[in-house]
Description:
The chain is mainly alpha-helical. The chain has six helices and three strands; from the N terminus they run αβαβαααβα. The protein is elongated. Helix 1 (13-30) runs antiparallel to helix 4, helix 1 (13-30) runs antiparallel to helix 6 (134-154) and helix 4 (74-91) runs parallel beside helix 6 (134-154). 53% of the residues lie in helices and 5% in strands. It has a three-stranded antiparallel β-sheet with strand order 2-1-3. It has helices at 13-30, 47-60, 67-70, 74-91, 98-121, 134-154; strands at 34-38, 65-66, 130-132. The protein has one domain (13-159).
Amino acid sequence: MPITTHIMRTIGFRSNILFAIAAAVGVLAALGRPWYAPAVEGDKSAQMESLLSGIGRAFTEPGGRTGWESFTQADKMIAGLAIATVVLLVLAMIPAIQLHVQALARWTGLATFGVVLVKFFDEPGANTATEPRFGLLVALLAAAVLVASAWTVAAAPSRRRHQTRTYTPPPAPEALPESSWGPTQY
C-alpha cells in the first residue's frame, strides 16, 4: 500500500508583504471608524453584565468619535508607523538592502500594535466616561496582522544569490616505492 505524504506549505515571503499592506490599509481605514463613545450609565454593582453589554455595544452601536477625531498626535503616529512598516517591507524585497530593513520593519510593526494597544486601555479623557467601539477593535486586529506579517518577513533568510562553489577534490597522494608497502619484513 503506498504511503501518501502531505506537504504543508506556509505563506510565502511576498504573500506576507501583501498581508502587511492589507493590514496597514485596515489600520488606516479603522482610524476613520468610531473608536470611542460615551459610556452608558448603568448599574455598577453588576460588573460582568456591564462588561458584556459594553462589548455588545462596541459592535452594534454606530455612533462615536473616530480615531482621527479622538487624538491629537497618536492618530498621526499610528498612521505613520503603519505606512513606514509597509515601505520597509517592500524595500525588503531588494536583496542588497534586505538585511538592513528587516529589523526596522519588525520594530515599526510592533510599535504600531503597541500604540493601538495603549489607546485601547488608555482612552482620551476619563476612562470611566468613554468606552471602545468597533473601529478600535478593527485597528487592534489589523495591527496584530501587521506585526505577524512583518515578523515573518523579517525572519526570512537573505534573498541574495550566492555563487555556488563546486567541490574540487584534493590531489591524490604520491605513490611510494613498492618496498614501503605492508608491514616491516624481518
